[in-house]
Amino acid sequence: MRPSVAADRHDLSRPRPGPSSLPLPLSPLVSADAAVGRKLLWIFLDGVGWGADDEAVNPLARGSWPHLEQLAGGRWVAGDRLPPRAHPLDACLGVPGLPASGSGQVSLLTGVNAAALLGEHRGPYPGGDLHPLLAACSVPALARRAGATVAFANAFPDRYLSRIAGGRARLGAFSRAALLTDLQLRGQDELVAGRAVSANFSNRSWPTDPTRPAPPDIDAAEGGRRLAGLALDHDLTIFEHWATDWAGHHPDRWPPATVLAELDAFLGGVLAVWPPEATLVIASDHGNLEDLSTGRHTRNPAVCLWYGAAPDRPLRSLTDLAPAMLAAMGLGPGPEAVLSASGSLPPALAALPAV
To answer: Is the dihedral of CA 31, 145, 47, 257 positive or negative?
Structure first.
């Protein structure tokens, strides 16, 4: 029997549990000295899977994307031999139906099979019944509890931040995890100062406000350099990009070739600054962009690239990524340490499988 879930999964008007309401101690999992280890930058790409080497349906099979290929060690297409730094992640997680963003992103962030917990794939938002899990076991929550410095690098327009403050905004799993971890949600001031990055890399689509200093006019490559520079000031930095999923759903409005060209330039900027001894992770939650024959998500493995010292375990599923990232930072054992004390967790989480 699956644990019960809230009847209204997306109603954010009701109070949600934050870190202070959890019955979990916030003492470090390890000493703070361990958090001084290897820095990790996680760039999340929404809706990118490993697709066929077929130019007719897969925009990743068309043309040349030099920085994407530099990161992977080869082309971003499925075949007999995958690029050496590619780790296809099972996004189906043993649950029927098409993978979805809400449960998939929670699984990435926590190392817990959220779809199995719910008995279904859920999207696009995680829903309030998964908020305690994000607060207790997400990578940013565990890293910060262990004494690491953590940054959520996305910049949000003032009007959206106001909606969040007023409890009127629907939040994806990454923003929700940041909020539940008491991370700063960055806005225009940080964007102007170069301490945040727009989700679309450059600032060209940023809302104008004549009463405020305008963000600088930068290109995608400069956005990548700014992200890498910000990440070097923190132990863990997370950045999410959504246009890849939009291009899969609406290629007429978000041309995939344009989206991929911007992404390639952005990653080139990151690589120009990011030191080779640090860890860079590119990971997605489900397939979409790689198959334009459908405007829906796919059951293809999600993209994952691990650039740096090899992970401490095989990466085969969305649930493998969180513990591997924490281990790479010297912050193990990760989510399983919290789940092993399941008797102190909220009832809906007590039946969670071990990582």
So the answer is: negative
Is residue 218 in some structural domain?
yes
As a dihedral over the C-alpha atoms of residue 159, residue 249, residue 138, residue 304, rounded to 10 degrees, the angle is -130
Domain count, the chain: 1
The pLDDT assigned to 291 comes to 94
- Asked whether the beta carbons of 186 and 153 are under 8 A apart, the reply is yes
The total of other beta-carbon atoms located within 10 Å of residue 238's CB is 27
Side chain identity at residue 169, one-letter code:
A
Would the pLDDT of 346 be above 70? no
User: First vs last Cα of the chain: how many Å apart?
Assistant: 19
Report d(CA 337, CA 29) in Å as an integer: 8
Is residue 227, in this structure, part of any structural domain at all?
yes
- Asked if residue 247 lies in contact with residue 259, where contact means CB atoms within 8 angstroms, the answer is yes
Q: Which of 309, 312, 296, 305 is nearest to 270 (CA)?
A: 305
What CATH number has the domain bearing residue 202?
3.40.720.10
- Between CA 265 and CA 28 the distance in angstroms is 38
What is the per-residue burial (b if ≥16 Cβ within 10 Å, else e) of 252-267? eebebeebbebbbbbb
With bands split at pLDDT 50, 70 and 90, how would you rate the model's confidence at 68?
very high
What is the per-residue pLDDT across 117-140, written as a single tens digit (0 to 9) for each? 999 999 899 988 899 999 999 999
Q: DSSP label at 304?
A: E
Determine contact, residues 58/52, Cβ cutoff 8 Å: yes
Q: Provide the b/e sequence for 41-68 (b: ≥16 CB within 10 Å).
A: bbbbbbbbbbbbeeeeebbbbeeebebb
**Rounded Cα–Cα distance for residues 308 and 328 (Å):** 10
**What is the residue range of 35's domain?**
29-348
User: What SS3 class is residue 145?
Assistant: helix
Q: Three-class SS of residue 275?
A: coil
Domain assignment present for 355: no
| pTM of the model as a whole | 0.86
Q: What per-residue confidence (pLDDT) applies to 338?
A: 57
From the list 297, 346, 354, the residue with the least C-alpha distance to 6 is: 346
Spatial distance between the Cα atoms of 104 and 93, rounded to a whole number of angstroms: 9
Identify whether 16 is part of a domain.
no
Q: What percent of the chain is helix, strand and coil (3-state, nearest 5)?
A: 35, 10, 55
